[in-house]
Write a structure and sequence with these properties.
alpha/beta; 7-stranded mixed sheet; about 40% strand
Length: about 280
């Protein structure tokens, strides 16, 4: 091997690094009318250091100048340019799975539901605006009867293939969750509804294996939503991160994500002050 790489070797090295993939994803979102920045900095909640997210995508879907109120959507994208397949183990959801609050969606208003016991008022219980507005009824994660509970990479180990899960939860999920938390703190300063979508975009294949079926075989899929619960000093809650195969990204945005905007836009157009009332009962 020469001590100086030729043009083909340089190009192969850059392509394998993922740098070009990040620009491809940025260009794809720009063509869809979104505002895009690459390598956007955010503050790491653990170490108070500056980190970067591969591709940050944002769009103001609605603005009311009189009320100074907006509706934003933002995609936080990590790009994984690798050929390793990722396999998700799934099982049927239980009755509580679709009751979890959508931490990635911010509303400037809360809803308190009046509780009654034997016809008597028994206080109130907070209900997420996500559920109150019925967005869970059309959201792709909540419509799915199964949930992904584990995932692993399929990697070559000498003469056989291995399912590797060592450290990949923290390596793949923590950075994007930290970026989400940082961006949410900024969004809270603005009077708005703000939908966040943390995406891990991969060139490798995605598979699911239904653990509830006998002799289940890996099924090739275009995307998988993975819920991760974290309980530590600085990060608390359930977080849903979407894994999307790169070639399906355009369809995912147009067919799975963008239909979720309609209920909010309908309210904005008819009664934007609804979102500024502070507390509903």
């Amino acid at each position: 091997m020469s001590s100086i790489p030729d043009k083909n070797e340089i190009l192969a090295a850059v392509k394998s690094s993922g740098y070009l993939m990040e620009q491809e994803i940025a260009t794809l979102f720009e063509k869809m009318g979104y505002n895009v920045s690459t390598n956007r900095a955010f503050k790491d909640i653990h170490e108070s250091k500056s980190r970067e997210i591969d591709v940050s995508v944002i769009k103001q879907l609605y603005y009311n100048q009189k009320l100074n109120f907006s509706f934003y959507v933002e995609y936080i994208c990590e790009c994984k340019n690798n050929q390793s397949s990722i396999v998700f183990i799934t099982r049927k959801k239980n009755e509580y799975d679709n009751l979890i609050q959508k931490n990635e969606f911010l509303f400037p208003i809360k809803y308190h539901e009046q509780l009654q016991i034997e016809g008597q008022n028994a206080g109130t219980s907070e209900k997420s605006m996500f559920h109150y507005l019925g967005i869970d009824k059309i959201h792709y994660y909540y419509k799915n009867q199964n949930k992904a509970v584990q995932f692993c990479k399929i990697v070559k180990d000498k003469n056989s293939w291995k399912a590797n899960h060592d450290g990949i939860y923290d390596a793949m999920l923590l950075p994007i969750i930290k970026a989400l938390i940082s961006r949410k703190e900024n969004a809270k300063q603005i009077k708005s509804v703000w939908f966040f979508f943390p995406l891990i975009i991969t060139t490798g294949n995605l598979y699911v294996i239904d653990s509830m079926l006998d002799n289940s075989e890996p099924e090739l899929v275009n995307y998988v939503s993975f819920k991760r619960e974290i309980k530590e000093d600085k990060i608390q809650g359930n977080f849903i991160v979407d894994f999307v195969q790169k070639e399906y990204l355009l369809d995912f945005v147009q067919h799975e994500v963008e239909p979720l905007f309609k209920p909010i836009l309908d309210i904005c157009e008819n009664d934007a002050e609804f979102f500024l009332k502070g507390l509903l009962k």
